[in-house]
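thread: overnight batch results

M.L. [08:02]
morning all. the overnight job finished for the chain we discussed friday. pasting input first so we're all looking at the same thing
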Amino acid sequence: MPQLSRRAMLSCLCLCLLSGTISCANDAVSVETTQTSTESTETTAAEETLFVSDDLPDDLDLGGKEIKIFIGDYNNAYIADMYSEEVTGNRLSDAVYNTIANVSERLNVRLVYSWETYSWEEMASFQNKVTSGILAGDNQADLIFDVMNYTSQMLEGDYFLNLADNKYINLDKPWYNQTVRENMPTDYIHFMSGEFSLANIKNVFAVYYNADLYETLGFTDDLYSLVDSGEWTLGKLEELIRGGYSDLNGDTIADPGDRYGLTFGDNNKYIGFLKAFGMDIFKKTETGYEFAYDNERALDVVDRLCRLINENENVLAGKHNSDNPEYMISTGGGNYANRAFVEGRSLFTMGLIADASVIVPEIDFDWGLLPYPKWDETQTEYANMLQRNCYVMMPATVSDPDAAGAVLEALSSESYRSLVPEYCEVTLKTRYSPDDNVSRMFDLIIGSIVYDPGEIYANLLGSPSATIKTALDNNDPNWASRIAKDKNSLIAKMSSIVE
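M.L. [08:03]
and the structure it wrote out:
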């Protein structure tokens, strides 16, 4: 049974969740184990039946050892989903707290959390600080969680240990993303993505639609049936947004105050089209990585999207992710939702799963959720990707790799069993979903997350997905010429990780 289908069965055990966030000081803090889990006996029994268990020994006792966990809190987007200092009555925050407390009690370990918040402009200096500390032999952390995976730094030296060699880590378990592992060049796995962080679910791309406006415009096709039949394609989207534009403010200028068929939270949402349309940056082969960013599909995708975004009056182009109140509403962590959609003036909008916590409480219309459309009906599966990731690494300076590995495995397993279902089944499905179809779409979207080697190694390659964003921003459909400038450099950099 698919992992998320099992989670869907937990819906009947969950109550409504009041959403919210926490804020923490930037100092190291430890978690006491006096707080017991708030899960009911029935929920625990259901979890044991529906979810895979880890292989940690039942009698594993770390003797009160201290394990230091450091979080690179990029754009203040990670800490609230990974650390909570106390029980507050907010169920998601309390689920984070209980995840940590349960692991602490189970392993008899003291977990000490610290973090540093940094911006895109500060990323290089932040990473240099981390690697310089490791090079100096500082035991600053036993586990590091960050938006980047330090691949380029690993080419200079072994800053991080091989997770695949750890006594207690089983990378075959469902809480680790297998497409990340499958796209690694060797069996040396110095980083991993997975369900130890809600960021690896919340940051997946999705399409929201205004069900009331859909009916007002005279459409009768059931959108969920289109998804189920495989007919939810770019062509169908283009068809449905025709006639979506209306000059509501009467100024004869297409501006943010008008109505549109399609909008974007910010221009980062363009990146979601890559995997949705079967476009690859690199493909892993038996001998290395094949460059695919300039194939025929890529040329067609960029040309068609340039016309859709920049030359279709029914589309309001995305803007840079910054505070632009005319166009966007902040959803936290440097991400934005489209204001026209929230105010009922857009039929479709491209966003993230996480946007639901801001969008849905603000709207006064019936809404729905869909995956990004397929390129065409010959594409067999829907595919989704993350706007950003959270990776875990174990520094070479770790004092006790086995203990750190046991903590990572226990945290990942506990999050998979408890925290992720709390978010998916309660925060999203119970609180924000208007019907079972939206719940199904959440499952489909989250269950079809795939990773491209070009995105996994974005830090090394210079974020090549941003190239398509730039092309669409500039309405430059000459993709072959644009990508030819970068091709040799990208291939050389990618080859370096194999060598």
